[in-house]
Design brief:
It is built from 19 helices and no strands. It is mainly alpha-helical and about 500 residues long. It has one domain. The longest helix is centred in the N-terminal third of the chain and has 54 residues. It is globular.
Amino acid sequence: MSTFPAEAEVPSSGFASETARRAARNAAALAFANVVTKGALFAWQIALARLLGAQEYGVYGTIGALLAIGAAIPDFGMGLIVLRDVARRPQDAPRYLGATLTLQPALAAAGYVLLCVAAWLFGYAADLRVLLALAALSLLVDVLGNMCHNQLLAQERMVLPSLIAIGHVAMLLMLGGAALLAGWGLWGLYAATITAGLGRAAVYWLALTRTGVRPALPADRALMRALLRDGWPIALNAFLFLAYQHTDKLITTAILGAEGTGQLTAGFVIVFGVIELLSTTILVAVFPMMSRMWGEGQTQLFQVLMEKLAFFNLLASVPIAIFTSLLSVPLAALLFGTGFTKTASVLQVLIWYTVVTMVNNVLAQALLIQNRQRWLLIVRSSGLVLNIVLLIVLLPVLDVTGAAVASLIAECMILVALVRSFTFPADWWARVRNHVWRLAWVALGTAAAVWALRGVHPLLAVVVGVPAYVALVLVSGALAPDDWDLLYRMATAMPGGRYVRRWWQREVNA
């Protein structure tokens, strides 16, 4: 008997087909843009590692970490608030745009100063600090585009941001590649980044004004105060989250030097790419829908969606972690070259951080929608403190691999705290244990196959391991009937869904 639900079934989770169709359409647009842009950027990062070498790539990674952390300052939590509130009240979009246009450039200037001071306090070399002074100009440039990006997402116009993202990355790679070929090094690379960012901001403003949204100026002072009041916990939480993600590189540079950071950054490129492609894409797409569910009092449906998203993230990330961990040596040599000898040991541990993080991201987004950012702030603060302590202890002992171990331990502690933040229905734990237990057996079977075949050839381990994982998922019952039903409705709502519908119906009738 087929395990696939018939098309006429009403999903037990309560998702209407139109809701699933809208979420699928948004996810499809963002997924396409992410596949193109993140794939291109992933290849670009690998090329940079080979072109720059471990030492210069460590400088690049350190500056990138500082910029990533500093990005939380100009945003100041306003992005999520705009996305949440404008999705509920579209008529207020001009007021929110006027308020962010007034506040965020000033915050970007403050962030620029703070980053330069932080680099000095870390004791970094003068050439790194001067490069940072140029690169940090992107804080102001990026925030001009981001405020329009959030407005378009709130309108659920996912196609426009997707097209702009593709064009931005294309311009960045073209200008950055030309700068490197001209021999301008990191100076040329950062100049290209700023130029591409200016083009992105200009196109975003043109796209937003064509939807009829223009900033209401002078800005509403009451709204500005509300954004600052409600945004600071989100901003601090985002700052701590980004600091938690990137502090390992900053401390590694201070303790081991830029070369060690280059080895760590190479591993982080893979981890960050997996998270951005598989987790961030879907979470951004469903954020407006989840916000409406919670705002309309659909608590049970909200909890179901949260559970499904967390499990689907787990289902997608576990096989990636298995293959990357067991095949890290040939993978690191293939991607980054012989100069990155320590990256393989970093990847063996750090890739499992990806699995935990993708689940944590779902739970953290749920807390933000529930306006519980202050509790999330406490959780992230505790995780950051633990991570810093572990970095200081483990880096001198385990070398650069200690950074990966510290991140994984701290992320697991955050997972425990986040799960305990919710009150779930009585049957929730039994259902989750059943899912996770079955998935664990699937993972063990897949890992055994990869382990046995990697000595023959890594490619053979992949060719056999991927279909083995899929087959084990199908026969193990790891996916419940309502999981299949939701997947069916999402898949058939995406472009090419009629082909999925035909195949699915053949399975139902088999």
